[in-house]
């Protein structure tokens, strides 16, 4: 596969991702960066761009694409293997029984939280076993806004995931290089490059709280077109004194 980017793709993808990486020192000399590949548009786009950035960043680092087999039957990952190989990498696959744990043993009515925790823990352990010190997620700007609203509506708190987080239990640093990228940019990129997308076989797919938040963000952005940019500016310029902070216990 010949890795090429149009001027628009460089402006909307390569440049902001490079800026984010350098701004937060996400990747440094000698890093072994695992990329959690689901077969979806976000993580595959991240692998494509980081493969190009290996030649543009002023330091050497390794990319280690990893994927979890969740135990769903009839899931064809051959297109993902081929895509990774064409980019010049080897795909490392970890076999798990996460789907059986969530749906057969636990029989979760709201399975997303348990599944996410199991996947996250397994990814960290697998990345560490491959001598990786960084793990890159394909979270983008829309994911950030949706997470903010989920925390507010379902958790009663104000917050969103961080660009970079050190996980002392696994000695892995979690990074999110695509924080400044809008989801529609990724959708257009995947179509333009004909990147293979593997359908999510999870029976809860498209029926989650995150889907509700995704619909909410779409609705709000029709009335407030600069919603995403305003959110990013706000998340980067949080003033703690602007929030109510309870430093004392209330006495009755």
What does this entry show, briefly?
This protein is α/β, with parallel strands linked by helices and 252 residues long. It has helices at 7-23, 41-53, 78-86, 98-105, 112-129, 141-155, 183-193, 209-223, 227-236; strands at residues 32-36, 62-69, 92-95, 134-136, 164-167, 172-175. The chain is built from nine helices and six strands, in the order αβαβαβααβαββααα.
Q: Strand order across the biggest sheet? A: 3-2-1-4-6-5
Report the count of strand segments: 6
Computed CA radius of gyration, to the nearest angstrom: 19 Å
Q: Which regions are unreliable across 5 or more consecutive residues at pLDDT < 50?
A: none
- What percent of residues adopt helix (DSSP H or I)? 40-55%
Q: Looking at the chains present, what oligomeric state does this protein adopt?
A: single chain
Ordered list of secondary-structure elements with their pairings:
Elements: H1 7-23, E1 32-36, H2 41-53, E2 62-69, H3 78-86, E3 92-95, H4 98-105, H5 112-129, E4 134-136, H6 141-155, E5 164-167, E6 172-175, H7 183-193, H8 209-223, H9 227-236
Parallel strand pairs: 1-2, 1-4, 2-3, 4-6
Antiparallel strand pairs: 5-6
Characterise this structure.
The chain has 252 residues and is of the alpha/beta class. It has helices at 7-23, 41-53, 78-86, 98-105, 112-129, 141-155, 183-193, 209-223, 227-236; strands at 32-36, 62-69, 92-95, 134-136, 164-167, 172-175. Strand 5 and strand 6 (172-175) form a beta hairpin. Strands 3-2-1-4-6-5 form a 6-stranded mixed sheet, sandwiched between helices. It has 9 helices and 6 strands. Helices cover 46% and strands 11% of the residues.
